[in-house]
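Consider the subject:
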Amino acid sequence: MQKKSLTDLTIPRLPPGYHWDATLSAFGIRVGKTSRTFVYVRSGKRTTLGRYPEISLKAARKKAAAIFAGLTDEVSPEISTITEDAVQIYLSAHQGRKRTVSEYERVLISYLVRALGRTPLQDIKTSQITAITDRLADTPAEQNHVHRIHSAFFSWAYRRRIISHNPMRDLPLPSRPRIRTRVLTDHELSSIYRAAQDIGCPFGFIVLICIHTGMRRTEAASLKWSYITHDTICLPPEVTKNNTPLTIPNLINENLALIPRRGELLFPSSVGRLFNSWGKAKERLDLLSDTTDWCLHDLRRTFSTIHARIGTPPHVTEAILNHKTGVRSPLQRIYDQHDYLPQMRSALENYERFLRQLLENV
């Protein structure tokens, strides 16, 4: 939650959105198209303190401080339970998990807020939620993904007593999960690699990093220059899917040198946030590579399959992929604290030779 010093000089110039005060925790102002409203967040509920300038900044801070001290407990359901406000509270409460928040924000804003943003959260019915996911029947993976994120949000709202009932309770997944087994052929992998080179930064380079390292797409898109040295690439736990840090040998310095530096992120969006324009970019990649019916995660499965072909021991491949389960038992993982960096470097060097030969011959 980004904070700034709220003053009578800065408030009139604030853009639309929420702006949080650096002086008093959880106190801020919501700027709309025609009004500016002071708010205070406590225990997941947003309290309206009055509109500016009808109430002064000093008076609003005093009211917020009184609520904090337990001297008053005024709550405005109109402000505290509006769906778009509740979503912002939810996202703010989970800012520590940046990769998760980015994806949750995409889903909740694109689907729930777009459809029901001004609806009081308490009034949302199960049928309104299923109407959102029903429209995604042609993309079952995204349909289930949206369902899970909405379910997590409403469960949180119920636990925080923002709503008195959870409209998604006992609601099953809309689609039966399908276990993907797609492995790209050598010809498909070669075509995708060359198409990614043609596309270039940012999306093309994200795909190339996935091919070379086996990273998940969100891990590659979350890379920062501070994670990278000449010898290693280190992903902190807040970036990885299983919240486990990952260090792998860096054999892609030549590729990384081609990426223009525009800040700490390797692949920032136009507004400086994580890259998130997957749909249209993937369509262009499919067209250029003449490869269809595949997803970016298939690159990771293909990466693992190729390592089996070239003789990489399974436990080394699992170390590169940062898998928590596999051939090593949980007990062995506790007692075996070796980082496997030498073995991973040898495996990745063999893999790089395979890729070079593939691109030369296919």
Observations:
- Strands lie at 3-4, 17-21, 27-31, 36-42, 45-52, 232-235, 246-249.
